[in-house]
Task: structure prediction
Amino acid sequence: MDDGTRLRSREIMDVRSVTRSSPSLRSKALTRKLMENPKVPFAVALIFADAILAFLIIAFVPYTKIDWDAYMSQVTGFLGGERDYKNLKGDTGPLVYPAGFLYIYSAFQYLTGGEVYPAQILFAFLYILNLAIILLVYVKTDVVPWWALCLLSLSKRLHSIFMLRLFNDCVAMTLLHAALLLVIHQRWHLGLIMFSGAVSVKMNVLLYAPPLLLLMLKAMDINGVLVALAGAALVQVLLGLPFLVSYPVAYISGAFNLGRVFIHFWSVNFKFMPEPVFISKGFAIFLLAAHLMLLALFAHCRWCKHEGGLLKFLHSRYVSMRLEFVRFSSSFKKLGKTSSSSLKVLTKEHIVTTMFVGNFIGIVCARSLHYQFYSWYFHSLPYLLWRTNYPTLMRLILFMGVEMCWNIYPSNSLSSGLLLCLHLIILWGLWSAQPDYPYVQDKSSSHKDT
Result:
């Protein structure tokens, strides 16, 4: 009896010792995992360090008055009951952004009372949120080394765009990066809704639309693509409904005007072009043709290389669509299973690369880039540079060169010409790099396919 009691007490002590040691074992396992992938702790430390920097900027760097007062004037008119877009004006002119901008900046006015200092605090939190989202995208992809994540916090111009200018580009890009994060986790429908929300703040987000549509055709069947597009369109209709009901022509022509000509003086790129050429319709058509041609070339030779090229891929999707139509009309479930079985899960790297490169092509071919437009692609620069085959030193030189060009004010012929050259060098590096196998399934055979 005593032996049994001692045996049970020894077992209890063993269990307690294991219980005490298990948190330690878990802690060691977690530490080992973090040491193997230092991106996570480094990203967290980067967020905290950048948060301190953001609030130091607000405290010690003077605010630059540009668009905030105009935004507040436009919002005041909207809240006062005005629904004619031609009458929603500010110091910088009439409102040229879709309705989502009005709702978001109305909320900002409510939270800040229209005052600059609390708005700067709000935008500091927006900056940190955007940084956290984009860092999560970088951590989820295996492209950029952990130490290079610090490049995302080294832009003087980007800090200025967020904390000292309060531009709506900041809101649009935060929503876009959130949409990208949803897409790489295969939440396509929710990602499209978020993407549409970003478009409703500023139209530049549409530069991501062509590569996003291509990725959707790869990842979903035709029905899924149509439903996702319908959801995105519904967002635009619901947000713009008060204006579409009242003054539809004024809203559509004002909020979705793709033919705007920007002022030559404020352009950071193509400043070396004579102003008559810069504002000419012929130059605009040339850049649009170059944009479309580059998108087609990258889609055919890079993004759809493993599918046999863009035309072959689109033909396969057309055949799949016909099979879906036959299944729908004849109710043969077997055909539906056959058509959807060819769909595979895309890798996170392929999604992010396609999206970032597609947007960068639009940046290279943009007729005018104002200073706040740097936020359209800055966060993709480290990723794009590490997608090239350039040596690390050259990547860093290209990054610093682009940042330097964006911090020259006012821009001049030399700085704009240098920026174009840097962009073209990066684009050539992306073109000459070997595309990775785009699918999660059968990834082990990617070496055979390449």
User: Anything to note?
Assistant: The chain has one domain: 38-441. The chain has 20 helices and two strands. Residues 38-441 form one domain.
